[in-house]
Every structure is written in C-alpha cells, then in structure tokens.
Task: structure prediction
Amino acid sequence: MNTLEEREVIALVVQASKCLEALTRKFKAEAMSAECQAKIAQQQTEIALIQAEEEAERKRKEQEPKGMIKCPFGFCPICGAVGTDRQRSGAVITDTCAEGHSYESTDAVPLSEMMRRKRVN
Ligand SMILES: [Zn+2]
Result:
C-alpha cells in the first residue's frame, strides 16, 4: 500500500505524462500541418510559374505577326499580294501569288521586307 505522498506523486506523474502526450500530439499535428502548408505553398508557386509561362507564351503568340503564319511563302515581287502556292518543279521552286502571278520562290518578298517597305511608303 502506497503512502499518501507516493500516491500524490504517482498521480502527478500520470497527469504529467498525459499532458506530455497531448503536447506531443499537438506538436506533431502542427509540424505536419506546417509541412503540408509548405508543400501546398511550393505547389502553388509551381502552378503560378506554369501559369506565368503559359501566359507569356500566349502573349508571345498574340504579338507574333499574323502574316508569319498566314504567309509562309512571302509576297509577290510583282504586285505585293500574298503568296498562296508553292510548287517544286525539279530544281526550280515556283510561287504563285493571290493575284495569279508566278515567280521563283527566291524572288518572293519576305514579310520583314514587306513591313519595311510599308513603313517607308
Ligand atoms: Zn502578284
């Protein structure tokens, strides 16, 4: 049979260990939650980066001269209309413009030259 003092000490130890357990659980939960939050923040950063890249790519495409895509054959050296067709016949590559002119593809006016001319005129 324990003395009163011993029982008090045991009770205190039990209480203290329960308290410690609770604190440990609390700290573990907080640590996990902090870890989770760090991961979430990291993922959010990655998502933001991807979104920024996509946005930059979209803007870059928007700013690209539309003619680059629409006029892969350049422009007619005779009338300035857009080249609509390119036919290879042996070593000679012949382009045809929207107005029906035929010319060698090497004579086709590139978009950059076309834009320069428009600025000059
Ligand atoms: Zn033409």
Remarks:
- The pocket of zinc ion is lined by residues 76, 78-79, 81, 97, 99, 101 (CB under 6 Å).
- The first strand starts at residue 83 and ends at 89.
- Helices lie at 4-63, 66-70, 111-120.
- The two ends are 112 Å apart (CA to CA).
